[in-house]
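Example record

The entry below shows one chain as it appears in the dataset: sequence first, then structure tokens.
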Amino acid sequence: QVQLVESGGGSVQAGGSLRLSCAASGRTSSNYAMGWFRLAPGKDREFVAAISSSGIRTFYADSVEGRVTISRDNAKNTVYLQLNSLKPEDTAVYYCARARTSYILGGNWADSDNYDYWGQGAQVTVSS
């Protein structure tokens, strides 16, 4: 059974930073691409970022490009999401997800159907 556990959420003022972590159970977790999504009140789930299994390729939503960095440490089975220059509109529950493959062919990293395991979420609140 694969489990994903997020941590690092919290409350910050606009312009601040947070680093979210996602610890994955299972020996083969490093064989899969990983992604981060977020869900804000009254909005649809939104893709934030994704990373290939090797960590070489990363992908970002336009709304966070330049402010967010996704990375992974396969030795620790952990994926990170560094959030910088946070804005009130970044307030949401952030979820990490494991992709079905090591690399999503066709480039549709934002499609949640390409992910099969999800964490419980970490709340990020940004005040103005």
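Notes for this example: The chain has a mean pLDDT of 95. The first strand starts at residue 4 and ends at 7.
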